[in-house]
Specification:
Rossmann fold; 48% helix; 7 strands; alpha/beta
Amino acid sequence: MREERVVVVTGAASGLGAELARSFASCDFRVVVNYHRNEKAANALVEDISRQHGEDRVLARCADVAERSQVRDMFAATIGAFGRVDILINSAGVNRDAPFMSITDELWDEVMNAHLKGHFICGQEYVRANPDREGVIINLGAAAGAIGRRNGANFCSAKAGIAVLTKCMALELAPRIRVNLLVPGSVQTEEVVERYHLRTEEGLRKELSSLPLGRLGEFKELTDMAHCIVNATYTTGAKFFVNGGQYMH
């Protein structure tokens, strides 16, 4: 087996996770496409990557990132298929918005598990599966984790926790493993389009007025930044914003 780097992308069945998987596959990485419920979309992505880059370059693996045994099995399967694991991109997560007083324990736990607990468990199991190589972990943040927003106390709290978790991981896993935070802004994912009513003229105008660069972001601008983070060998514990200047920190 050629010594090619291997990246595990969680939550890769759709959205940014899928685009990250495509992007790294196109740059000669072997890719593990993690998914939880959307098997059809994950298999379609794997078929597409296989068709373009070869069946031996991609693996789909179902795992709930909040369930340690499933995550451990995912990394074991990665090592079994590719012999190594170099990079972890924690992209898995869900939104379950509701007014603060309407958030149930179940809604709170579902979002916390998918985001914060998932990042924690996947980070630990990645390190255990990668005991002697240099490595990279990219966590996914959100500006809402710093500034908050209405009807998203669970999501915002989880993302705030991930930002601090990233720093703790970076401190403790250095110098062998670098850990950084990628913070997307208004990119045209289905979730962003729906949340901010971007299919309406009024919604789009309002969103664009908050962006100093005057336009929505593109997936490629996020995936390009992810590649930069992987190659930034003297950077750890940092935040990388890709948001058109909407939130500056």
